[in-house]
């Protein structure tokens, strides 16, 4: 099978501003550990404050972009992945382009000349992270860019599509275009629940895309929020995973598979009305650096095997391997070569 541009991701490219902070900092900005939210006015001063910290790091991120970069790293095949999103015409945007090129991802950014490149404050306390995204230019993506011949050619070329749920807040029409193309051409379309606020406040656009999803990824918190929002009255992650997999589908070519991670607990995979649990690689607490990008890395590892048509067991194992590598480093970063067999 030819792997050239086999996987296309679309999402919100953000430059992560990552720093170790304390509980006082979280309280000051009304934050909780392991939260992912969009920035409000009350959060804006935190970016300057974090930038002034001696331990601050800048890493090209954004959920989908992280997953695509990890998939590219795991595949070690030139030009296997592509990514589309919106950045600003500024220093951070240039940094993003340079970073993506180094990662081997074929990026087609829309460059907005009014808004600055989006940033994400990654506040790390005791290895756990709290994320506050200030979308800025990432929020300016329009489906017109996707429809341009050179960009739509990436859609035509790809056989697998992955989009984090965060992109539902930006361009649901772009998601719909790709989803319908995938269904019409027997391709694989995948999304992530991404955050509790997506399931709660963007329920309508999420529901519109759901019938097209061949794979739904998420973590246990997002799954439980999804259940509550849909009035399912169950907190049992395995039950929720089955229910999500059995929601109506737009195309019968692929049965939906739900993949839910649960931190150190086993990965839940639901398909055909059954659940299978896969153990994760346990990490001693002292080796944990930060959990930022763990979920994204899991998806990236999973996708690297899926596009090679490997069995589910290999996909999950690769996901667990990639997540394990990333949580031992700062941000969603990895060594030069994977050590996955």
Automatic annotation (TrEMBL):
The keyword Magnesium applies. This is Adenosine kinase. Signal peptide: none annotated. ATP dependent phosphorylation of adenosine and other related nucleoside analogs to monophosphate derivatives. Keywords: ATP-binding, Kinase, Magnesium, Nucleotide-binding, Purine salvage, Transferase. The keyword Transferase applies. Residues 34-335 form the Carbohydrate kinase PfkB domain. One of its GO terms (cellular component) is cytosol. InterPro entries: Adenokinase, Carboh/pur_kinase_PfkB_CS, PfkB_dom, Ribokinase-like. It catalyses: adenosine + ATP = AMP + ADP + H(+). Its cofactor is Mg(2+). Pathway: Purine metabolism; AMP biosynthesis via salvage pathway; AMP from adenosine: step 1/1. One of its GO terms (biological process) is purine nucleobase metabolic process. Its EC number is 2.7.1.20.
């Amino acid at each position: 099978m030819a792997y050239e541009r086999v996987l296309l991701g679309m999402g919100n490219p953000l430059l992560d501003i990552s720093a170790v902070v304390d509980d006082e900092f979280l309280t000051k900005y009304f934050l909780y550990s392991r939260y992912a939210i969009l920035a409000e006015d009350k959060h804006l001063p935190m970016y300057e404050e974090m930038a002034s910290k001696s331990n601050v790091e800048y890493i090209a991120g954004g959920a989908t972009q992280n997953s695509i970069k990890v998939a590219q790293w795991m595949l070690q095949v030139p030009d296997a992945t592509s990514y589309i999103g919106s950045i600003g015409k500024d220093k951070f945007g240039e940094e993003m382009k340079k970073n993506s090129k180094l990662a081997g991802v074929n990026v087609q950014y829309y460059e907005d000349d009014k808004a600055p490149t989006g940033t994400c404050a990654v506040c790390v306390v005791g290895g756990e992270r709290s994320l506050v995204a200030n979308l800025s230019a990432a929020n300016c993506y329009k489906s017109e860019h996707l429809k341009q011949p050179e960009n739509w050619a990436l859609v035509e070329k790809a056989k697998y599509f992955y989009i984090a749920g965060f992109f539902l807040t930006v361009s649901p029409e772009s998601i719909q275009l790709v989803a319908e193309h995938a269904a019409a051409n027997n391709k694989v379309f995948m999304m992530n629940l991404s955050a509790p606020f997506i399931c709660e406040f963007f329920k309508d656009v999420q529901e519109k895309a759901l019938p097209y999803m061949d794979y739904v990824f998420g973590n246990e918190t997002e799954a439980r929020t999804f259940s509550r929002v849909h009035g399912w009255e169950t907190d049992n992650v395995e039950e929720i995973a089955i229910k999500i997999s059995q929601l109506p589908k737009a195309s019968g070519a692929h049965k939906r598979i739900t993949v839910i991670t649960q931190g150190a607990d086993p990965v839940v995979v639901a398909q055909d009305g059954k659940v299978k649990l896969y153990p994760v690689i346990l990490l001693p607490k002292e080796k944990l650096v930060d959990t930022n990008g763990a979920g994204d890395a899991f998806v990236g590892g999973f996708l690297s095997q899926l596009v090679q048509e490997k069995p589910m067991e290999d996909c999950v194992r690769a996901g667990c391997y990639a997540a394990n590598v990333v949580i031992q480093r700062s941000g969603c970063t990895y060594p030069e070569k994977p050590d996955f067999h």
